[in-house]
Structures are given as C-alpha cells and as structure tokens.
Amino acid sequence: MIPQADLKHACQIITNGGVIAYPTEGVFGLGCDPFNANAVQKLLELKHRDIKKGLILIASDWEQIRHLVTPISPERLTAIQKTWPGPYTWVFPASKKVPPWIRGAHTTVALRVTAHPIAKQLCQYCKTPLVSTSANLKEQLPAKNIADLTAQFGRTIDSIVPGALGTLNNPTRIRDALTNEILRGGQ
Q1: Domains in the chain, ordered, with CATH?
Q2: Which DSSP string do the residues of 12-69 spell out, in sequence order?
Q3: Do residues 114 and 123 touch, judged by C-beta distance below 8 A?
Q4: How high is the mean pLDDT in each 10-residue block of the chain (187 residues)?
C-alpha cells in the first residue's frame, strides 16, 4: 500500500494538471486527469504519442467509468465485469462524456477496472479515473522500474509513485467489448 502522504502528493499533481508515473499490472504507467486537455497534451508530448491513437483509462470500480460508455447488452456487460477488477482492458462505445483527446480518432473508449493495489488506491483517492498508458517513449520498451523511467524521461515526469509491478510480463490485453475480439495482445 502507498503511504497517505504519497497518495495526497500524487493526487495534487494530477489535480493541478501534472503527469505521474505509477506501477500497474505489468509495467509502469503514465497517468493524468483524463478530463484536463492540457494534462493529456503534456503526457502525449512526453511520450511522443499521436493523439489519434487514443488512451486507456483505469478506474477503481465500474461506477467511476460507467458514464463514459453507451449501453451495451446486459450479457456482454456481465461477462466483462466478471474479468474486473483485473488486468483486462475493454474497448467500449464511448458516450458523449468522453473527451476527444481520450478517444483519439475513434468512437470508442478503452477502460480497465484495475486490481493493482497502488493504481486502484490512486483512482480511489483522486476520485476519478486516470489515464493509463505505458511509460515509454515511442518505439521504446515500457519501463519496468524507476531506473527505466528516468533513463527514458529524466525529470520530465512530475512525480513517480514507487511500488511493485503486478505479475504480468507485458501491458494488458485489449479486447472489443461488443465482439470480444483481441485488439492488442498481452496477457
């Protein structure tokens, strides 16, 4: 578990439009407030990532993200919710509440209810879902430790939340919520 002071500090940075790095299920992630266009732009510039790709959001529970999706069949939603909390990212049809800088060139939004204790605590304490994109520069391997983070980003990240990664060897698998099709490999 992350100390209360570290949680407070990370959430203050997020609230003020900053970018943090934090441990997730398989790699370190970069995160920020998904509803702050300037924060997301800063994160995209740090990664050298095209806004058209879209971004994943993580949450501590379904209630944090339910307003971001348009309704899908109860059967599909039940099947998806059985995978959560856990290392499963699902791409849903996006509601109008999803900012264009999160959707990118898509009409969908990628969501995960995380089981990673630190990532989950961050979402709970900050009372919002967070952007969760692997901490790496374009075409570089995702950071697996703080040394990797500093080698790629130096001091350009506003804060690094320390902690152990989950047990995955790679970023999470991404599936289509409507079809169950695998959109990105992973574990």
Answers
A1: 4-184 (3.90.870.10)
A2: HHHHTT--EEEE-SSSEEEE--TT-HHHHHHHHHHHT--GGG--EEEESSGGGTGGGB
A3: yes
A4: 87 98 95 98 96 97 98 97 96 98 98 97 97 94 94 95 90 91 78
Confidence (pLDDT) at 150: 94
User: Contact 39/50 with Cβ under 8 angstroms?
Assistant: no
pTM over 0.70: yes
Alpha carbon distance 86, 65 (integer Å): 15
Tokens of 67: 């307003």
Order of strands, sheet of 20-23, starting from the edge strand that comes earlier in the sequence: 133-134, 28-31, 20-23, 159-160
Nearest CA to 170 among 22, 19, 24, 20? Answer: 24
- The residues facing 130 across adjacent strands are 58
**Nearest CA-CA partner of 59 in 5, 18, 102, 4:** 102
Residues 6+ apart with CB under 8 A from 133: 29, 30, 31, 43, 47, 49, 55, 56
Instruction: Give the whole-angstrom CA distance, residue 104 versus residue 90.
Output: 16
Tokens of 34: 């998904």
Nearest to 24 by CA among 68, 65, 64, 58: 58
How far lies 52's CA from each of 44, 85, 91, 106, in Å?
10, 27, 15, 8
